Amino acid sequence: MPKQKMMHSPREFAHKNRGILSALIYGLFSMLISYCCISAVAGKGGLLAYQDMLSRRTTIQKAIDYLQEQNELKTRTVDELKNNASLTAERAAALGYIRPGETLIVLPESWRNIADSAKESMELPVVAGDSTGLPDALIRLMSAVTGIFAFLAILVFQIRPVEAPRKTIHLEEHAGLN
Prior knowledge:
Layout: H1 10-16, H2 18-42, H3 47-83, H4 85-94, H5 114-117, H6 136-158, H7 171-176
Helix pairs in contact: 2-6
């Protein structure tokens, strides 16, 4: 009675499933390569996040410059108020503070200087500290889909169609029919 093999050797398994195994390896490599490429371009430390950070930097620098100007203006105003008593009294009266025996006259709002009311203001940026790149979970998902598509494409292109038997016509036989 002939012996039957119950188990296949690893060589036989690899030889029989070489197409699937190579397609799986190519799929995994394409997943790894796509993960690296997507992370380099659109990840949290990628090129797009870097460009966004540069634009944020210019906005923040403008805000810093504006705030420094405002700080210098306030410092000058404080110095002026410390050194000029009449200016201090005028500003106190504008706020509604008067000395005993003085009379405060309030002018209508329309008489005030329009330039004082329309002072330049700047909207300050809010910095959250988080990058604008794609989340890593989304990059992993995109890479996995790319790897699966590569695996399936390799499997599809490895399937060879069954060749139909070719009809051959010999000229001698064709000539003998006439």
